[in-house]
């Protein structure tokens, strides 16, 4: 059984646990992106507008411009924070 097949098998239980409040929906989103893309995408969260977006590689400038803000607010390269299990 491939890693993806294993993940698809456990996904319904993960969704159930998110609905019960055991895990955050952000954690589930991150896990799905990681499994489906082979960990090639990072989910970033703008500290100004709090929108999330994905990127596929570190910026050569060391930061990103949020695609949702009208301003040129820069977002540092770090994965989404606070995606741990609730408890």
Overview of this protein structure:
This protein is an alpha+beta fold and 87 residues long. It folds into two domains: 1-39, no CATH class; 41-81, no CATH class. Helix content is 34%, strand content 16%. The protein has helices at residues 3-19, 25-37; strands at 42-45, 52-55, 63-65, 74-76. The strands form two sheets. Strands 1-2 form a two-stranded antiparallel ribbon. A two-stranded antiparallel sheet has the order 3-4. Strand 1 and strand 2 (52-55) form a beta hairpin. Helix 1 runs antiparallel to helix 2. It is flat, with a radius of gyration of 15 Å. The N and C termini lie far apart (32 Å). Residues 81-87 have low confidence and may be disordered.
**Biggest pleated-sheet summary:** 2 strands, antiparallel
Number of domains: 2
Mean pLDDT: 77
Task: State the strand order across the main sheet.
Answer: 1-2
SSE class: alpha+beta
Strand content: 15-25%
The end-to-end span amounts to 32 Å
Please report the total strand number as a whole number: 4
Percent helix = 25-40%
Flag low-confidence runs: 81-87
Question: Count of helical segments?
Answer: 2
Q: Round the Cα radius of gyration to an integer and report it.
A: 15 Å
Shape: flat
Order of helices and strands: HHEEEE
